[in-house]
Amino acid sequence: MTPIGQIERKTQDRVVALLQGRLGYADLGNPAQQAKAATKRPDVVLYVNGIALAVLELKRSTVSVAEGIRQNLDNQKKEFIQPFFSTLQWLMAGNDSEGLRYATIETPEKYWLQ
């Protein structure tokens, strides 16, 4: 595992510990098994009353926000996780160096706002 992967793994472990220990989530699955699965999933999902309203795709500062936007757009394709996007109102993509861009579902990349 690269040093970058190790940092991300430590962050993931802290988030899982928070969700399990302080917020009472019992089963978050096995991250090692999830890494092996060939599934698509967003980085952060905002749920309100159990309904997914927003997705945030985060990229490291060396990766363009445009890559996060394209990933959001790809995830909306029928062959990936299109049904998941049926309740979403906001899509966001961001990194430390370029900030955050946002749009609604199926918005072409050139129309995403800052």
Task: Outline the secondary-structure elements.
Elements: H1 3-22, H2 31-36, E1 44-48, E2 51-58, H3 65-75, E3 90-95, E4 99-103
Can you put this structure into words, describing what you see?
- With 114 residues, this protein is of the alpha+beta class.
- Helices cover 32% and strands 21% of the residues.
- It is built from three helices and four strands.
- Strands 1-2-3-4 form a four-stranded mixed sheet, with helices on one face.
- The radius of gyration is 15 Å and the shape is globular.
Number of strands: 4
Shape: globular
Main β-sheet description: 4 strands, mixed
The share of residues in extended strands comes to 15-25%
Q: What's the total helix number?
A: 3
Q: What is the mean pLDDT?
A: 81
* Low-pLDDT regions: 33-38
**Helix fraction bin:** 25-40%
Which structural class should the secondary elements be placed in?
alpha+beta
Q: What integer value in Å does the Rg equal?
A: 15 Å
How are helices and strands ordered from N to C? HHEEHEE
Biggest sheet, strands in spatial order?
Answer: 1-2-3-4
Give the N-to-C terminal Cα separation. Answer: 34 Å
How would you summarize what this structure contains?
This protein has 114 residues and is of the alpha+beta class. Helix content is 32%, strand content 21%.
Which labels suit this protein?
114 residues; alpha+beta; 3 helices; 4 strands; globular
